[in-house]
Structure formats: C-alpha cells, structure tokens
Batch of 4 targets.
Target 1
Amino acid sequence: MFERFRSLPTTVRAVQFTEENKDRVFNSLTGQHAADFEDGKPIVQVTTAHGEVAIVRLGDWVVCDASPGTYYPVRDDVFRAKYA
C-alpha cells in the first residue's frame, strides 16, 4: 500500500542567525517579523507561509520560504545534515 518516495534536491536561501550578525539579519527580513529576547538572548520572530509565528534562536538558520516575506527557522544541526 505505501510506496517509497525520495525528496527532490532543493536550493534554499538562508543565513545563520548569530550574535555577530543579528542586527543585519533582522534588518534584511521583509514581511512581518519582530525582535525580542528569550532568557536574555536575542531572538527573531518570523511569519511562516502558514501564517504562524516561528522563533529563530541564536545559531538557527533563517530560511526564505517560497512565499515572499515568509521564513522558517532550522536548527543548526538539522540544517547542516540536510543542506550543503
């Protein structure tokens, strides 16, 4: 009944959110987003293509979604395992 499928290779636009570039990353985002702090560390809240708010923490990657002005966060270990 179940068949096997493989994921097609994809190219994404992304940047890692670090202490050094946090201001540049925030200023380069379009659409609805906000800067905040969590446990004293900077975070960015971005809007996903589904209209949900997602949190990007230091070390995470901000990946541009297909819809303009929408993004999604990917943890560093997951990003490095999936993207080259």
Note: The beta strands are 14-16, 33-38, 41-47, 53-57, 61-64, 71-74.
Target 2
Amino acid sequence: MIGLDTNVLLRVFIEDDPAQSERARRLVRRATAEGRVLINSIVLSEFAWTLARTFKLGRLEIARLLAELLSADDLEFERREAAKAALDAYRAGEADFPDYYLAEVNAGLGCASTATFDRAALKHSRFSSVP
C-alpha cells in the first residue's frame, strides 16, 4: 500500500502542472493495479480545503470530486463512512467539508459534539457553541 500526499492527489484532478499531473496519475494507476492506495483523513481534508481556497472551486464541484474519490473501490480511506457522512452534510449545509469531516471523526471517537465558533457549522447537530 502507498499513501498519497495532498499535492499528489490534487495533481490527479487538477491540471495546473501537466508534468506533475501525468506523474501523479501514472503513480496512482500503477499503485492501484499492484495493491491499494491510502488517502488518510488529513489528506482528504486538505484536498477539499485546497480545492476551495487555492483553486477557487465551488461547493458543487468540490462535492462532485469528493464523491468520485469516495466511490472508488480501488482506494482506501482512513474513515470512508465518516467522510461519506461529512459529504452529505457538506452538500446540505453551509460549513466547509473539513469541518463536517472533523465532527464525524470526533463523533466516531465518542465525542458528544465538536465545540466551535463557526456559525455555519453550528447549524449542524454535530457541533456545539463555546459557552
């Protein structure tokens, strides 16, 4: 198994450096043919955040790319079910995907809620305000 850094995963989808994009796609094709590729929680969160902040993609496009990733059977995810629940919340809500993902991971670890100052996140039941 091989783990991917965020910049490699981004190059699979974003053609901002054609040479790196080709190298990233070739690596992922080879690695998935030989075994599995791991996308951990940090990379998935950074992926969504970078798509929004650096590449200025909209929510619908980010959700589409996340759904494409999460539906790939030849990729391993550290917490696929939490990521899917976060994607559903992201599609319906106003907060960023990493916020929803964090809340889902925390819930899976036994947290009653995730404390935040983020007003958009507070609209979701997994979050609580800081008193």
Note: The CA atoms of residues 82 and 108 lie 8 Å apart.
Target 3
Amino acid sequence: MKAGLIILGLSVSLNLSAQGVPVPHIFTTGNPIVASEFNANFQELSDRNDTTQTQITQSASDISTNQSSISTIQGNITQIQAEITNLQTNTSSQLLQFVGNSTGTVNGSQGIRAMTELCQADFVDSRVCTTEDYAKTTNFPASIPNTTYAWIIPSNVVGSGNGLNSGAPVNDIYSGQVGASIANFTCGGWRIIGGTGLRVSGTGQFWVSACNTPIPVSCCK
C-alpha cells in the first residue's frame, strides 16, 4: 500500500511539474507521502481550476460585450452611410420642397432672418422658399386659400436693369415677374418698407406688391 502511494505521489508530482507550474509539495521516489501535503497539492489544483473557470467566464462575457459593441458600431456606420447618401442627393439637387406658409407674418423690410425664423417656428429646419424651389415642388401640402399671399425670394433673375429709370428691366424666370431692378423683387434687400417684393398666392400665382403689409412667408425644406 505504501509503495502504491509513493508511486501515485510520484506520478502526481511529475504531472504537475510537466505543466511548468510548481505546487506546494513535490514528492520524490522513496519519500513517504503526507496526507496533508498531498491534499494541499490537490487544493492548489482546485483553486487554479476555479480561477481559470472565472477567467473563462469573464472572457466570454467580454466577448459578448464586444460583439454587442461591434453590432452597435455597424448600425451607426449604416446610419452614417445613409445620411451621407441623403446629403449627397440633397447637395446634387440643391432644391427644397414647399411645405406651407408660416402662421406668423412680417412686412418686407424685416429681413431674411425674421422670415426664416417664422418658417422654423412652424416647420423644423425649413427656410424661405425661392421661386425655383416653389416652381419645382412635386408634392404640395394641403390646399392653401388663393387669397393667402406669402413672401418668396427670386432665384433666377436675368436682364441688365439696375434702377427704376434704367430702361433695361430684369425678369425672374420662375415667377415670370418683370421689374426695373432686383431691388423691386426684394424690398430693396428686404429692408425698405416703401419698396416692392415678390409674393406667391395659395395657388402659386406670383405678384410684385408693396412691402409695407405684413404677410406670411412661404417655407421650404
């Protein structure tokens, strides 16, 4: 029996040594095996096994977390790619769609900023329409009464007129309106209450009228 324990102890010691990690007690041939030392070796192995299992579990958890993060990143990349595509599409066209008139009103001398702020109060990320935006809109909102007028910005003016008496009028291609100068379409740069500016009716009819009357703003986005 003693010889068997000695052989077993030698076998355990050799196996432990083969792994390159020393254990508390090494048994050699001919030396008696003490039960407490033998048990201490196995306890050491058990503790090492527990530690290894904990590390494996943690590694598995880390892998799962990383996979989740990778999925999130891939989702973000897909969204960014879609936004880039949308931006490229919008950049290539440079045209917006008419979405409606502002509920607030301004006269023609209050400036583009005041007009844009009225649009954004009703339609997020919108701005004042240009005549080209309006003319090329393909999906108009619900019907707007024909008697409702709104300011609109000229977008393609041709001609050499530069004053009321120039004798060479200018024309906004999309509205079809004619004036002595661009100032006649923009209330003198949207700053002169006594001037004239472009406005559009609910059915898309364009007019040049006095700037002193507060009216809504045509909004595009």
Note: The beta strands are 98-101, 127-128, 150-151, 157-159, 170-172, 178-179, 196-200, 206-210, 218-220.
Target 4
Amino acid sequence: MTTKFLQCAAGMAVVATMLAAGCSKSTKEVSVSKQSQAPASQEAPAQPVAAKTAFWPMYTAAHQWAADIVVLRVDAKELPGYKNEAGKAAMWEAVFASPSRHEYRTYTYAIAAVAPNIYKGVDAGLEMPWGGETRDAMAIDMNAFNVDSDAAYQAAAAAAAEWLKKNPTKDLTTVAMGDTYKFQEPVWYVMWGTKQGGYAAFVDANSGKVLNR
C-alpha cells in the first residue's frame, strides 16, 4: 500500500375543491367556485453520484459519435453549490478517443445545470486531434472497470486512515481513473490535499486492491 506523503505530486395533478356552506334558511348560502391547487411535489435535491452512474450515459453518447471509441480517462469535477465526497461527485468528465477518426472528445455529466455553461446531464465537447495512445495515457480496458469510484475511495481511505486522522482538514481533491504502462490494469487515483503536501493512493479498478507505486 502507498502510505507516504506526496511531495511532488443534481405534478401532482391539480385538485379542484368546491367548498359550500349553508345549513339553514337563516344562513346565507355561500358558494365557492375557486379552485385550490395542491402544491406540486418537489423533487429531492440532486445528490453527487458514483462514477459508473455518470459514465454510462457519457459512453452511450460518445458511442453515437464514433463506434470505435476507447476510454482514456474518467475523473470527478467540481460543480458550484455541491460538495464531492466519499468518491462521489456532482459532475464527472470522461475522455473518449476514436482511432479511426484520430480524434478525441471530452464529455461531461452533471447532476444539475449551473449557468452559464454547465448543463444537466450529458454534454459533449469539441472534437480534437488525437495521435493515439501513449505510455502515460493508455486506453482503459472496459472489462476491467469493475470497481466504482465510491468503493475505490473506501479502499484508499482505509489505507490513508492514519494520515487522515493527523490531517483532518485536508479535503479530497482528486478521484480519477486511467491507465499507464506502470500498471497492468486501469487504476483509480485518489488524493487528499495537494501533490506537494497531501496523500494519494492507487486502487486497482479491477480488483479494488490498493497498489504499491
């Protein structure tokens, strides 16, 4: 397990109620013809989601763009007004590339819209030139994407327990999945604090085990 500090590194139907009063000749008959509308049921506030909840809608949209897509990266992003925690995020980003088109495209999934340029659901970025895989940005084997971000977080947090106890003010800053030549499987990278003064762990996205770097 990696346990050292890193020094460089988002109706109800209208109910019409007719009210009438008047029980005797000495009481004026009152007829109320106004409709009272029951308050519409309000949706529960949107909550941050784990990566797979956001990933598959993005994957479906990207597959419509190019049938031969490969996945290069999946990572959590900040959405104003929401707090990412426990491996869940209010917005996720994924990078898909097409070998046949020699292009890549970044997709986002947000649980809510935030003006002026964040839209709820899936949003696609521009098509950009792509020169192919590199040692530091390899395609993610989708058959090995078995561990969701919240489970990866739990594994990383267990490994970081002692450090987190000593550094309770350090926030979770990175939850990202990718693959490089250093690993045999795609990995989750979970970090608290900064590269200069924080803690990071790599979690195998296939097995859920914390890895030595």
Note: DSSP finds three helices and eleven strands in the chain.
